[in-house]
Each structure stands twice: as structure tokens, then as C-alpha cells.
Amino acid sequence: MTWISVPAPRDLAEALGDVGYLADDGLATAAFLALRMHRPLFCEGEPGTGKTSLATSLARALGVPLIRLQCHEGIDATQALYDWDFPRQLLHLRALEAASKGDLDADAAEQSLYTERFLLARPLLRALREAPCVLLVDEIDRADDEFEAFLLEVLSENAVTLPEIGEVRAQVPPLVVLTSNRTREVHDALKRRCLYHWLEHPDLAREVRILKRRLPGVSDRLAAQVANAVRLLRAAELLKPPGVAETIDWAEALLALGRTELDAEAAAVTLGAVLKYREDADRVRVDLDSLLAG
């Protein structure tokens, strides 16, 4: 499978499956359309439903680089697009001054400071230059409104203009995957630019298949026990319900201990692989028997 040889959603789903990501028909179709229509794919859903893994798996399946922009409060264009290597520029300027012996051409020296030699390309600029690639804009809901507006402009044009360098335009639009845990609503203007998909936790049968694909050594019985127990944990209104990654971690921990089934004793000593808050672990330990009987 290459960047341009994806004839249908089912082919993309198979390619994702080959790298360990089992996408349902809706998600495979959304990703296929994003690739074919050159539109960003905006993925929302609870933490742990596989949004970030989708981007990393798409890059592996399509055989292209993954470039990640992790959003956070206060992120600005400089952190996302480019910056200048000021320490190296200063050293360069001092070297020019020393070599000129008091006869430095100031204009020429200034021009020599703003060249590729001292340019620090951040994720957005790298994606425009290195496409085809997958650009993951992770947790866009953590960025502020101004950054959203800036990002919308870049994604609309697939190009930016750097005052010192000129225009940088992607020869092929990168496949952009934006993720959000919905800690706040992302503006409609950005959503309209994107294709949208809401990710749910996988159902029991698909989570068992995920475990079998990611952990070939796990038995059908153990995979079903772990997936079912995680399903019940997600319904228990915990502080941090487990995601798919925690399901895999739990099964892998049991395998590492040589366990062939999930009984109360095995669950008690491995809860740290699936629950990450003391309050959640204390609450679950009280009801382990009923959890495993569910």
C-alpha cells in the first residue's frame, strides 16, 4: 500500500489491520475520504478510543512519515511553524565581525543570518515541506482561539509565507488528523474545513480482535475475559475509564506473569496496568468478584 494506491475504504482498513489497527467501516471510510479529498480529518471521542493511534497507524500503513504537533494552552505560531536559532546566529555574527577586522558589511551580515542554515522548522513547516506525510495535530481542544484561526489558514492553503524566506507550499497536501477530547468546543470554522468522525470505544467483539492482533500469544479465553472486564470498568463511572491501550497493557501484564485466565487474584495484582487512580483501584478491588462474574 502506498500513498496514492488506495482504491477503496476496505483496502485502507486492511492496510491499517496489517499494522495492528482495526478500524470499523465508518472510520475507514472517513480516513479514506480525507486522503482522497485532501481534507483534514477531525476526530473526537473519549480518551483512549484510538484517535492518536489512528494517525500513527495511517503513517505506517501508507509508508509515509508521521509529524506530530502536540497542542497545549498558550501554543503559538512560532512553536508550530518555525523559529530562528538565535544562539547560532549570534556565534555566526561574532565570527563575521572577527573576520572583517572592523570592516563588516552590516546589510550583508544581516541577510546571512536569515537563511536555511539557521531556520528551525517546527511541525507545520516540516509537514508542508516533507509531504506526503501524516500530520497529527493532537488535542486541538487544548489550544486557544487565536491558534485555531492560524491553523485554519495554514490547512486551507497548504502553504505559508515566511517573511525572510518566502512562500512554502506543499507539493502534495499532507494527510491531517486532528484530535480532540472535547474539553472545549472547537470553533465551527475549523470543523467546516474538516471531515468529522466520532470515535467510540470498540465493542466487545472488536476489542477481543484487537487483543488477538496486538498480542498473538493471548488465548481466546483470556482475551474475552480482559475485554469484558474492561467493558464493565468503563460503565462503572471511574475517574479515568480505561482506553484500548490499557486493555492491551492489562492482557500483556497477565501474559508476562504467565497467567492464562483472569481470576480475582490475577486481577488484584495487575490492576495498575488498567487503572491509574488510587480511588478507582480501591473501588474496583471491593467489587472484583462481581466484576469478573459480569
Description:
- Helix content is 51%, strand content 14%.
- The chain contains 15 helices and nine strands.
- The protein has helices spanning 9-18, 25-37, 51-62, 77-80, 86-100, 106-113, 123-130, 145-157, 188-193, 204-214, 220-234, 244-256, 264-270, 278-286, 288-293, and strands at residues 41-45, 66-70, 82-84, 119-121, 134-138, 159-162, 166-169, 175-180, 195-199.
- Strands 2-5-8-1-9 form a five-stranded parallel beta sheet, sandwiched between helices. It has a two-stranded antiparallel ribbon with strand order 3-4. It has a two-stranded antiparallel sheet with strand order 6-7.
- Helix 1 crosses helix 3 (51-62), helix 10 (204-214) packs across helix 11 and helix 10 packs across helix 12.
- The radius of gyration is 24 Å and the shape is elongated.
- The mean pLDDT is 92.
Summarize the structure.
Helices cover 51% and strands 14% of the residues. It is an alpha/beta fold and 294 residues long.
Question: How does the SSE layout of this entry go?
Answer:
Elements lengths: L8 H10 L6 H13 L3 E5 L5 H12 L3 E5 L6 H4 L1 E3 L1 H15 L5 H8 L5 E3 L1 H8 L3 E5 L6 H13 L1 E4 L3 E4 L5 E6 L7 H6 L1 E5 L4 H11 L5 H15 L9 H13 L7 H7 L7 H9 L1 H6 L1
Parallel strand pairs: 1-8, 1-9, 2-5, 5-8
Antiparallel strand pairs: 3-4, 6-7
Helix pairs in contact: 1-2, 1-3, 10-11, 10-12
